[in-house]
Amino acid sequence: MLKIYNTLAREKQAFVPIQPGRVDMYVCGMTVYDFCHLGHARVMVVFDMVARWLRASGYQLNYVRNITDIDDKIIRRAQENGETIRQLTDRFIAAMNEDAGALGVLRPDAEPRATDYVPQMLDMIGTLEKNGYAYVAGSNDVCYSVRKFDGYGKLSGKSLEDLRAGERVDVMAGKQDPLDFVLWKHARDDEPAEVKWESPWGPGRPGWHIECSAMGSQLLGKHFDIHGGGQDLQFPHHENEIAQSEGAMDANEQCQFVNYWMHNGFVRVDDEKMSKSLGNFFTIREVLKKFDPEVVRFFILRAHYRSPLNYSDVHLDDARQALTRLYTALKGVAGETPVDWNEAHAVRFKAALDDDFGTPDAMAVLFDLATLVNRGDAALAPQLKALGGVLGLLQRDPQAFLQAAPAGGLSNAEIEARVGARSTAKKAKNFAESDRIRDELKAAGIVLEDGPQGTTWRRA
Question: Could you tell me which residues come within 8 angstroms of residue 427 by beta carbon, excluding any fewer than 6 positions away?
Fold first, then answer.
């Protein structure tokens, strides 16, 4: 049985869906004002893996990942660029989808944009006001009164006295409590008309937290199975989602908003937290200029999703060599074969992923299979490829991966020319020249393999 570490319970729990055979999952997506960075890559790849495993386990999955397309940073960036909000967000949504596709991330079943759900947000805010949780602050913003919600702090595991306003909680005059957060931001004169919606509290726009509560409730219902996101969202964003969503329920429908909360760990760079201020902030596009996208995906999945992920070129090079070893075992494997779930390695693989999506142990199974294949048990190669496919890996032509050119490396044409020159030297019995070319290619990271059919090559 699948077990999931539930942040709400702070323990692994057996996964029991609300409806047998069906799973509804919501994941907080990107705020689209810039290119996606490595932290976004981890969220996308981790929950793509979760979605793949749920489907492989036989569940009918409805996977929703939202897009925040209205936000202070978005407004500021659009004004700096001299473009409309829609032009900016459309451009970066297209870039996000391009980056996700390169990493082998399948599109979610729904990708709601916040600006398409403002009416639902207004309805929810109105209900919160009626239920006594919302009030108009001195700034004319509508705020949520956290002290009126008995369960506030249950996700973060802290009391109200321990909690402090998070990064996105504006501390402003007129709030009843510093922890109260904005549900509806009153329009400012210097903001463009496209970010002003009419409301019972005057023109304005939604706060960040209400977006996910409204979209999740609208698309998945007031009670659903899994809610995911980065560890940094646990407080205040997800804590506030619970307060809003449960506070907006009628007395006769009181229930828990979400059964299982999942949070992936932080990305660190050379053992320091990734941040723009430290100058160690990398976009997906920057990383993909140096490393194959499948290597990046492999690197992300080789770590457990809840563990910190330490990025460095050394770790990516190691991931490339490890993935090369797996692809080397697949040389000659063509077509697709379904997983034989009764085979011993598949049983171990399934047990690993059923234990809170334990990809490190699942990866270990792939390497055990590769070792057996390289020792001569070629019959296991299709099983290796099929199990890799469950994680979105090992589905390319092996030779194409093994010969893929890294940035700044020798091109395939240059390598082929030197392999040809070596063959000519060997035929002329000029073995000194033949050995010189082999050593030159070896120094460039090219491995030559002589066989009855001639010489093949791969990148080390």
Answer: none
